[in-house]
């Protein structure tokens, strides 16, 4: 083919690439298959049209030539625009690859290193970092209220994959505005002091099961155990009891007999990764077999909901009782799919987060024997009689224990990066002193914010629970050089109207479990543990929306 006839194909194909960029910039794709179809079809159609007008033949080589020119011009134009001074986020610093493509964030999410890398980016670039073509990460105390507080921003597309698109209802975490407020009202009723007392009775049964199993291990000749595993069994069984009136028995079975725990964890992990490219979900939904995890979760939800509906309310009211409004407070009763979706979400939201908090606490205290001894002395003083261990009224007296949880969740938040809020169309915002244009996704990563010396000072990376107890600590930005503990920037349970709906329950749960373990056992890292199973366990944490933990091997001995 002569150079001039090549040009007759290359030039219009390249032009078509530019037109496509122009179009997609205005019309974000809602799925992957529609644009993919057009990206393949257009160069073919163009080659055909050109052949009809006498410019080149309709051959495979001409189709490939047109496709290459089309895709090259489209990609170049996208990359050039994203790096250009005309991009609305051009004024914000960040890694070049992150500015160019979401694949950068996706790769990071796959590695589980998002929290750690984001912190490094803030140390390098400052409070506001461009961490994607249209997203930013903000590490700034004032931004917490501005973004998550009243009049702040709603959740954006990042949360779409958190709901099963084939069901008629979304999970609470994925709702905004009035639908969120309505659902949250029901959740809040389910978390009243009276409801919490009921849940404590449910928790106490599971906690006793845990202690019975650990007693057995403590009395065995080899009292070494992966404590993270047993803590997960407890939090998972408890959430099953809460959400569906029972169903799991990992504590009694000593493992994940029917594989549901593994499925739920895999589901959360996959969601946390897919959330970076939410438009892929409708495409995945069309490919049979690809959604095995979602399908199993769906079946699990409906089977458990069906069983719970058949059984009816038990004497002790579970979360389902309140979510279903079984005592009839609401004018319009929640629908079964709504409750089912929130029931499954409660298990996801409430199991690995609580175990994450307990694991981090355990790690921090075990690596600080002085603090361990003080916590144990406090628990012994508050609960001289071990039979009263499940009485949460005494939690108020466990100041050091509470401070240890604040500090360990500050250093290792169970939701380390979290999801993004989105700037609405036509309403650009100033956040942390920077203009953030419409449609931008804004992350407020707890892991970075909670280790920022402007929010926690001195030694923001050190485990110092006493910082929460010393009266000298001030809320401020550190400008005075005083000790700082900025409570607004403690984001382990998030902040504002969509913060953790079960924060008070979670606190009772983790305090009760920790007090019981410390009162009953001497716990030390196991002698046969590797560094990553003991003193360097923190390095194994993976950020998959909820923090994922590796084994922590400890030895437990019954105390006299
Ligand atoms: C220590 C344990 C826990 C921690 C650290 C924690 C943390 C969080 C965080 C950070 C969020 C905000 C997520 C986001 O915006 O992306 C959240 C939301 C939520 N959590 Fe928790 N959580 C814990 C335990 C629980 C438990 C036990 C339950 C259920 C019984 C639960 C139910 C929820 C719900 C329903 C939401 C969504 C609230 C809304 O969107 O209005 N959480 N949690």
> Total number of β-strand segments?
14
| DSSP strand content | 5-15%
User: Structural class, from secondary structure content?
Assistant: alpha+beta
CA-CA gap between termini: 91 Å
- Indicate the mean pLDDT: 91
* Approximate shape: globular
Walk across the major sheet and give the strand order.
1-2-8-5-3
Largest sheet: 5 strands, mixed
C-alpha-based Rg, rounded: 27 Å
What is this structure, in a nutshell?
Keywords: Iron, Membrane, Metal-binding, Monooxygenase, Oxidoreductase, Transmembrane, Transmembrane helix. The chain has 560 residues and is an alpha+beta fold. The chain is built from 20 helices and 14 strands.
Structural descriptors:
5-stranded mixed sheet, globular, binds protoporphyrin IX containing FE, 560 residues, 3-stranded antiparallel sheet, alpha+beta
Structural account:
The protein is an alpha+beta fold. The protein contains 20 helices and 14 strands. It has a five-stranded mixed β-sheet with strand order 1-2-8-5-3, with helices on both faces. A three-stranded antiparallel β-sheet has the order 4-14-11. Strands 6-7 form a two-stranded antiparallel sheet. Strand 6 and strand 7 form a beta hairpin. It starts with a helix and ends with a strand. Residues 172-173, 184, 187, 242, 346, 349-350, 353-354, 357, 414-415, 418-419, 492-494, 498, 500-502, 505-506, 510 line the site of protoporphyrin IX containing FE.
Question: Secondary-structure blueprint of this entry?
Answer:
Elements: H1 3-26, H2 33-52, H3 60-83, H4 96-100, H5 103-111, H6 114-125, E1 128-132, E2 135-138, H7 141-148, E3 154-155, H8 177-190, H9 193-219, E4 224-226, H10 227-244, H11 250-253, H12 260-274, H13 281-286, H14 292-311, H15 319-323, H16 336-366, H17 369-382, H18 399-411, E5 420-422, E6 429-431, E7 434-436, E8 441-443, H19 446-449, E9 456-457, E10 484-485, H20 503-520, E11 521-525, E12 542-544, E13 546-548, E14 553-558
The structure holds protoporphyrin IX containing FE.
Pfam families: p450
InterPro entries: Cyt_P450, Cyt_P450_E_grp-I, Cyt_P450_sf, Cytochrome_P450_monoxygenase
Transmembrane segments: 7-24, 36-51, 63-83
